[in-house]
Amino acid sequence: MQATSDSISNLAKALIAARAEMTHPVRNKVNPHFKYSYADLTSVLDAVVPVLNKHGLALVQLVDVKSLVTILMHTSGEYISSCADIPAHTNAQQLGSALTYLRRYTVQALAGLAAEDDDDGSAASPNNNESSPTGEDW
Predict the structure, then answer these.
(1) What is the mean pLDDT of the chain?
(2) pTM, 2 dp
(3) With the C-alpha atoms ordered 99, 100, 105, 106, is the resulting torsion angle positive or negative?
(4) Among 37, 43, 116, 128, which residue has the least CB neighbours within 10 Å?
(5) How many domains does the chain contain in total?
(6) Vertex 136, ends 110 and 64: CA angle to 5°?
(7) Residue 12 belongs to what domain range?
(8) Distances (CA, A) of 68 to 20, 100, 105, 122
(9) CB-based contacts of 8, cutoff 8 Å, min separation 6
(10) What does the pLDDT look like over 11-41, one tens digit per residue?
(11) What is the pLDDT, as a whole number, of residue 37?
(12) Would you say residue 90 lies in a domain?
């Protein structure tokens, strides 16, 4: 589920200005099994948050029952949000891994950034029985 304030014109202008200054996060991690490079959550947030803040934007991520809610707010009071379902998990470690993964991907989508190699969808293919390309199984 996605939600926005009645108007997002100020937020949109600020996000466009912020995006013009952002660079893609540093791919600082490698999955040894898949030889897959990616930017971890810290690298993604380091690339995004300071630039957003400079333009009057704040990023908030909250857990709501079985979902991760990502909210981008502007100083005008305008906001956009997105909700991602948290995958099934059996312990706190799996939950933590799932949340980290979702946080990373929702921030990248919101900011329009890429922080990992593009595998052209092969990891999500029904013929692929391997774990996730980033090695974060949940």
Answers:
(1) 85
(2) 0.78
(3) positive
(4) 128
(5) 1
(6) 50
(7) 2-115
(8) 27, 10, 11, 25
(9) 74, 78, 79, 80
(10) 999 999 999 999 888 787 877 877 778 888 9
(11) 82
(12) yes
Of 83, 104, 112, 107, nearest to 17 (Cα)? 112
- Alpha-helix runs per DSSP H in the chain: 9-21, 41-54, 92-111
Residue 138: inside a domain: no
Question: Helix, strand, or coil here: 107?
Answer: helix
Please count the other Cβ atoms lying within 10 Å of the Cβ belonging to residue 92.
Answer: 8
Length of the chain in terms of residues written:
138
Question: Considering the domain boundaries, does residue 120 fall inside one?
Answer: no
- Say how far apart CA 96 and CA 101 lie, in whole Å: 9
Answer yes or no: is 42 within a domain. Answer: yes
CA distance 102 to 31: 17
In sequence order, the β-bridge partners of residue 80 are 4, 72
Q: Give the pLDDT score at 120.
A: 41
Q: Yes or no: say if 70 and 63 are a contact pair by the CB < 8 Å rule.
A: no
Please identify which residue in the block is written with the tokens 């906001």.
Answer: 79
* Sequential DSSP letters for 21-85: H--PPP--EEETTTTEEE--HHHHHHHHHHHHHHTTEEEEEEEETTEEEEEEEETTS-EEEEEEE
